[in-house]
Every structure is written in structure tokens, then in C-alpha cells.
């Protein structure tokens, strides 16, 4: 059986987002972006709003200096561990009011510079090299050889 992409598995959700975005002039749903397109969209953005399950988009946000706005208890992946609420992100309760307040905080000009610095630092700390080293350490510890740290 062939594997299906996350986009294919979530077509129903995507249609719902498209429907709601079409009714709101302040929302531009762009759909998936990759490579140069993604870089251009991130450059034009002020934050990354991910109210549902987090994924590797967190790393894209940090690389672009964007704080991540998300909600607690949404089936997040391990990327949740990268977030420090109030430092490189805002983690809100899963209500429209809390997410709206978190989004306003993420857009606040007086907090913006701090978010950008913290996101850049997080991006440096959470590199592919770092992840590979931590993975190798875990394997080494599991087999009893101690790891690289």
C-alpha cells in the first residue's frame, strides 16, 4: 500500500481552512510552501501561527526569526520541546480568546526584537548537526558506550 502525504490525509481539514479563510479578508491561506517559496513567505511574515499539532515548521519559523504561536494539548510532536513560551514562542490555552491574545503578543512591537533574537538562538541550538549528535548519544547510551557529551 503506497504511503500518503500529510496533505492528502488532511484534505478535509484543508478544505475547512480554505472555506473559513475565503470568508475573512484578513486571512490569506496559501497552502503548503517549500524551498524558495517558503523562504519568501517566511520573510514576509511576522509570526508562525500553528494552533494545531506542531511539526518541523517550528524549525522553519526559528530560522526565519519568527515566534511560534500555538495552543496547549493539541497532539504536538516532539518539536514542542523547542518552545519556550514568552521567549521564542507563545503557548496559549486552546480557546479562540487565548489564541487571539497570544497572536497579539507575538505581533507586539516592543516584544518583537526579543522574539527575533531568541528564535535565531534557538535555530542555532536546534540544528540538524545537534539533532544527529543527540540521536547518536541516545543510541550510545542505549548500548552502554556513553555518548559524545
Account of the protein in words:
The protein has 149 residues and is mainly alpha-helical. The protein has helices at 6-9, 11-22, 35-43, 57-63, 96-107, 109-125, 128-143, and strands spanning 48-49, 68-71, 89-92. It has one domain: Glycogen Phosphorylase B (Rossmann fold). It has seven helices and three strands, in the order αααβαββααα. Helix 4 (57-63) packs across helix 6. The longest helix has 17 residues, at 109-125. The chain starts with 5 loop residues before the first helix and ends in a 6-residue tail after the last helix. The model has no long low-confidence stretch (mean pLDDT 86).
Q: How would you summarize what this structure contains?
A:
The protein has 149 residues and is mostly helical. The chain has seven helices and three strands, in the order αααβαββααα.
Please give the structural blueprint.
Elements: H1 6-9, H2 11-22, H3 35-43, E1 48-49, H4 57-63, E2 68-71, E3 89-92, H5 96-107, H6 109-125, H7 128-143
Helix pairs in contact: 4-6
